[in-house]
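Justification of resources, computational component.

The compute hours requested in this renewal are based largely on the per-chain cost of generating structure records like the one below. Each record pairs the submitted sequence with a full structure-token output. That output is archived, and it is also reused by downstream analysis tasks.
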Amino acid sequence: MISTFLVEHRWVAISALVLTVLVAPLLGAFLARRRRAAWVLFAVSLVPVLALTLLPDNRVVLPGCATGGFTFSIFAVESVANVLLLLPSTLLAGVASRKPWIAIAGGSVFSAVIEATQALVPSIGRSCDTTDWVTNTVGAVVGGLLAMMALLIARRWARRDVDPRRR
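The structure output for this chain reads:
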């Protein structure tokens, strides 16, 4: 359903990625002073990830995991969607914890757990693919880098608020 929409409207996924990269550092900087809100949004951001990856689908899949060659294209809807999947969660965890590198590692591990679950529980009708893990990890890295940018912006804003000469 979502993948059909994205294939028919390829510009949506690419536009969402570009918009996220442009807006996320400012939103993250705003949330850096509101850590509780960042943690709540992080928890909320996991709900669609779990729904999109683990809710049962009516497909029949074989147990195991596809380990085909890694391919990524900014114009491939599935690649961009997989990058976008964990980017917000990693950004929010990085800002809330003030430890973007740990958030990146957590995002990659979380993706591996999702793929392992898909491989070990074929009755949910989800296909495990190592390419999904790689592109999800790329999204986690982008989210972590955006969190770093957000924290730098937040520090600059805080210094400006403390030192009136910097205005």
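Residues 91 and 143 are 4 Å apart (CA to CA). The chain has a mean pLDDT of 89.
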